[in-house]
Amino acid sequence: MSEVLLSAEEQEIVEEGDAARVLLDDPAFLRAIEAVRRECADAILQSDPSAKQEREDAYNLSRGLSAVTQRLVDLQARGESILAQAETQTVHLDQDNPVEPADY
Questions:
Q1: Considering the entire predicted model, what is its pTM?
Q2: Confidence at residue 27, expressed as pLDDT on a 0 to 100 scale
Q3: Domain total in the chain
Q4: How far apart are CA 17 and CA 27, in angstroms?
Q5: In 3-state terms, what secondary structure has residue 70?
Q6: Cβ count within 10 A of residue 58
Q7: Which residues of 1-14 are buried (b: 16+ CB within 10 A; e: fewer)?
Q8: Contacts of 23 (CB under 8 A, 6+ apart)
Q9: Is 31 left (phi over 0), alpha (psi -120 to 50) or beta?
């Protein structure tokens, strides 16, 4: 099988996807995200009824964490997709141009 060839842009996308996967697979990162989300929920639920700005800040922080997490998921998926497409193209090229055994 041939080596998968990627453009510089595709290589960067794959590397970003790998970095995103590392973060998403890191239990400490995920625990930290969930801890802050819990703190946001607690701040919303336990705030004084007149503390509208405090609730909005906690809500916005929680939404921001969700946006960051989703962006990481998207980066990972995009990198995996680029790599899968390149591997498929490489397999097709290999099948179209099989390497004949050399005569020694």
A1: 0.78
A2: 98
A3: 1
A4: 18
A5: helix
A6: 22
A7: eeebebeeebeebb
A8: 29, 72
A9: alpha
The two three-digit tokens of residue 68, written as one number: 């960051």
Single-letter amino acid code for the residue at 97: N
Task: Give the position of tokens 């790599």.
Answer: 83
**Does the pLDDT of residue 1 top 70, yes or no?**
no
| Phi–psi pair at 22, nearest 5 degrees | -60, -45
Q: Is residue 3 a part of any domain in this protein? A: no
| Amino acid (one-letter) located at 101 | P
Domain for residue 54, yes or no?
yes
Q: Tell me the residue range of the domain where 50 lies.
A: 8-96
Residue 51 lies in a domain: yes
Identify the burial level of 28 via C-beta atoms within 10 angstroms of its C-beta, where 0-12 means exposed, 13-18 middle and 19 or more buried.
Answer: exposed
3-state secondary structure of 101: coil
In a domain? residue 38:
yes
Query: Which DSSP helix (H) or strand (E) runs through 25?
Result: none
